[in-house]
Amino acid sequence: MIEFSLWDILRNLLLALRWTAALSLVAFIGGGLTGALLLYARLAGGRVTDRLIGLYVQLFQGTPLLMQLFLAYFGIALFGIDVSAWTAAALALTLYTSAFLTEIWRGCVASVPKGQWEASSSLALSFVEQMRYVILPQATRVAIAPTVGFLVQVIKGTALASVIGFVELTKAGTMISNTTFKPFTVFGFVALLYFALCFPVSLTARYLERKTYGPRH
Amino acid sequence: MGGLTFDWIGVLGGAPLEWLELGVLTTLYVTFAGFLVATLIAIVLLGLRISEKQIIQWPAITVVAVFRNTPLLVQILFWYFAGFGLLPADWRAWINDDHSWAMLPGGVGLLTPEFLAATWGLGVFSGVFIAEEIRAGLMAVAPGQREAALAQGFGHWRCLGYILLPQALANAWQPVVGQYLNLMKLSSLAAAIGLAEITYQVRQIESYNSHALEAFAVGTLLYLAIGMVMGQILLRCGPRSGTMIRGGIRRGP
Fold first, then answer.
1. Any idea where this protein resides (chain B) (predicted)?
2. Are residues B218 and B206 in contact, defined by beta-carbon separation less than 8 angstroms?
3. Chain A nearest CA to B207, separation (Å)
4. Most buried in the list A37, A110, A215, B111, measured by CB within 10 Å?
């Protein structure tokens, strides 16, 4: 029987960590762009657009992410399109992220006082100019902390991609644990690596939150 | 391809229907058991977290940071594969034995490694979040409440029990209910260790007659329905922030 050293285990987990990071980045950037587009559509569009996007948000927030991943993986295949686990995971996580981010950002825009909208439209600014010079600069300040905080949820969410067979940190952990029969060490390391990825982000979010909402001097 | 056709009988009839019934029961059982564990853990953590001594606070802060910053799936896998292996051998043998008394109605075994690991994993994870929600609710109580209670001769714990916690619970009840609902949704992850709940059964149907879309649609609707009923019950049972003490005076009759 082959002996696996601690370094063998850790090295392979670190290699798999790249895929967790890549999937998180793709989901976060893709979800951010889609979320921004949805936010724009929601602010600029009429009632029907608003309702439709509200439904989209409800759908993704009200059902388990695992179900969404399965649906992306097995559902798309039914239409005769061959999807890899990577594509399905990236797609599902991007949509999931976009639903949450668009809702978070909508709240931030709503937190800008109504007088700002009225004052800027009385200055004859167009919708785009209003957004660009008046609303977004104020909303962004509020949005940064919860957005960074949500990144932790995205990173943790990528672990579910292991269930549809995408080899990222968790899947690699399961596989290595099955070959080495050292579940305690392997899953301990896996948890530690996720912690190393998420904890600094959590701390940053908390710091930003204090900076934005904390007492001023 | 000849267009998409749906066959609901393939999911809602015969063996798949029986599987789904078992799945719903298992989800309900594991959610309820997880609910109890989460509540217990939240109480313990909250007790540690709001103590006046730093030494007691630190372990709670560490536990909260660790469990909030790792994925629940990894935690469940850890408890199932590693945590269970750490138990003494005769305990493991005892758990793996047949227990007719530990069979819940519907034929769901309570004393199985899968059920225990899922319950414990879900309970710890949610308990950590619930403790933090209630602590946030506690911090939102006006400082005058505490000062007034202390001035009237309440001690630390009695002030908490009679004055601060009732208000904190009312403040935090909405997000706490959200966490309990999240626990129900996250029980889907227990499928990864082979607990035969809804998600597990849905996948089984998918591999049995490849009715993927129908099975996932039914599964999603089941979660949605359980969540709505559970949310209503919890919101009805909980304290309502509107009727609670506001500014120190109870409003209305």
1. Cell inner membrane; Cell membrane
2. no
3. 11
4. B111
* Residue A101: closest CA among A41, A149, A48, A50: A149
Task: For residue B97, give how far its alpha carbon lies from the nearest alpha carbon of chain A (Å).
Answer: 23
Output the domain CATH number for residue B90: 1.10.3720.10
Q: Is the ipTM of this complex over 0.85?
A: yes
pTM: 0.87
Q: By residue range, what is the domain housing residue B126?
A: 33-195+239-246
- Give the 3-state secondary structure of residue B199: helix
Q: What is the mean pLDDT of chain A?
A: 91
B208 touches chain A (CB under 8 A): no
Whole-angstrom CA distances from A92 to A67, A84, A158 are 10, 12, 10
Cβ separation B65–A78 shorter than 8 A: no
CA-CA distance, B131 to B43, in Å (whole number)?
7
Label residue B249 by pLDDT band (50, 70, 90).
very low
Neighbours of B88 (CB within 10 A): 8
Contacts of A63 in chain B (CB under 8 A): 185, 220, 223-224
Q: What is the pLDDT of residues B22-54, one digit of tens each?
A: 999 999 999 999 999 999 999 999 999 888 788
